[in-house]
Structure to design on (180 residues):
C-alpha cells in the first residue's frame, strides 16, 4: 500500500500547467509572432513597390501590431497564467490523499472551504500517466487529472509507487524526466 498527500494550491497548479502546456504555448506564440512579422514585412514591401495606386498600409500595420502582441504574450505567459489561475481558484486549495494498492486507488479530497469528495476505482480508469521529476499526473480524461506530488509520500516510496503504476498502465505510462 502506498499513501500520498498532495496539497493542491496555486503554486502547485502553476507548476502542473507549466509541465502540460507552458513551453508549447510559448513556442507557438513566438512562431506565430514571427510569421506575422514576416507577413508585415512582405505586405509593406509590396505596398511600397506598387506606388501606382493609393497605398493601403492597414495590413502591414495590423500584422506588425499583432506580431508585437504575440511576442509580448509569449514573454509574459507565466504571469498571465498565474493571474488566471489565481482568479479561477479564488483562494481555494485542497489536500488530496491518495491510497494505492494492487487492486486500485482511492482519492480523498478535502477543500479548505470545508467540502470533501472521494473517488476510487481500478487502474483501467486511467487513460494516461505522465511522470515528471517532482510529480506524477494520472489522467482519467483530458479534463480530470490526479496530480501526485513526489514530496507527499507518507507510506511507501516514490520509486515503488511509480513502478506499480507503470506496471498497471503499461504503454499508457510515460516518463518525461527521470531523476538519477
Amino acid at each position: 500500500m502506498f499513501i500520498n498527500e498532495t496539497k493542491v494550491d496555486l503554486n502547485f497548479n502553476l507548476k502542473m500547467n507549466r509541465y502540460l502546456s507552458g513551453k508549447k504555448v510559448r513556442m507557438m506564440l513566438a512562431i506565430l509572432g514571427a510569421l506575422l512579422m514576416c507577413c508585415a514585412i512582405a505586405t509593406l514591401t509590396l505596398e511600397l513597390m506598387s506606388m501606382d495606386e493609393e497605398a493601403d498600409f492597414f495590413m502591414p500595420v495590423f500584422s506588425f501590431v499583432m506580431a508585437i502582441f504575440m511576442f509580448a504574450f509569449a514573454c509574459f505567459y507565466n504571469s498571465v497564467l498565474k493571474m488566471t489561475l489565481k482568479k479561477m481558484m479564488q483562494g481555494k486549495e485542497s489536500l488530496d490523499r491518495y491510497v494505492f494498492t494492487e487492486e486500485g486507488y482511492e482519492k480523498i479530497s478535502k477543500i479548505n472551504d470545508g467540502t470533501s469528495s472521494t473517488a476510487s476505482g481500478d487502474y483501467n480508469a486511467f487513460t494516461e500517466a505522465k511522470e515528471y521529476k517532482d510529480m506524477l499526473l494520472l489522467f482519467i480524461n483530458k479534463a480530470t487529472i490526479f496530480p501526485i506530488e513526489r514530496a507527499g509520500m507518507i507510506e511507501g516510496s516514490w520509486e515503488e509507487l511509480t513502478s506499480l503504476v507503470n506496471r498497471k498502465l503499461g504503454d499508457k505510462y510515460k516518463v518525461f524526466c527521470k531523476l538519477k
Q: What stands out?
A: Residues 85 and 166 are 30 Å apart (CA to CA). The longest helix spans residues 10-49. The two ends are 24 Å apart (CA to CA). The mean pLDDT is 89.
